[in-house]
Amino acid sequence: MTVYFIGAGPGAADLITVRGARTLAACQVCLYAGSLVPRELLAECPPEARLVDTAQLDLDAITEELVRAHGEGLDVARLHSGDPSVFSAVAEQMRRLDAAGVPYEVVPGVPAFAAAAAALKRELTVPTVGQTVVLTRIARQATPMPEGEDLATLGRSGALLVLHLAVRYVDELVAELVPSYGADCPAAVVAFASRPDETVLRGTLEDIAEQVKAAGISKTAVILVGRTLGASHFRDSHLYSAERERHVC
Questions:
Q1: What is the rounded distance in angstroms from the CA atom of residue 41 to the CA atom of residue 16?
Q2: Which contacts of 138-147 are long-range, i.e. CB under 8 A and separated by 24 or more positions?
Q3: For the chain, which ranges sit under pLDDT 50?
Q4: Is the dihedral of CA 82, 83, 87, 89 positive or negative?
Q5: CB atoms within 10 A of CB 58
Q6: CA nearest 176: which of 230, 138, 219, 222?
């Protein structure tokens, strides 16, 4: 058997990849994060599949379920919101499976920051304005951040920042970023990206915190900060330039 770590996407059930949906439909066991994964996706599972909501399970209990399925010769779909490559807690599960000799594969998904950019109708990298995107979070009640990855340090790069798991502390992060970006720097918050209750806030570091409070947003949101969010006067990309030399095969 094989454990498949599947990116379920940012929220909308139809944003799972074709490969993810096909893999899900072929697995006899499905472990899913009930608080984050859309329940409509479970309809893709075989009718006889064993469904396990991991919202209240710790790492030991999740590992036990995966190893048990392996012992029974059953393929497992491990559904994670967004994409497994960032902020998914997949790494420690893989480490446990390596130790137990259980094979696994990863099926990528649409990450939350991509869904947020789509909601904003913005390209996050704009020629001559910004070509770097930093995905990060802040440490409060979660695992501490490594040395050198605090917001003050990251902010000095001037790169477009995408902050996960941080909207509850929007006042604090604004205070940390204003010295590097300036109060007039464009900022946005997208909550429940791609879902029917999606909320999009646009502003600057000066007013985004008040907008968040007024909207009552406290979870499942992505914060974006950077000059590319408001860029309108920039040079066209070299990719489609008439001056670019093209070879016709």
A1: 8
A2: 138/163, 138/165, 138/166, 138/169, 138/172, 138/173, 140/168, 140/169
A3: none
A4: positive
A5: 9
A6: 138
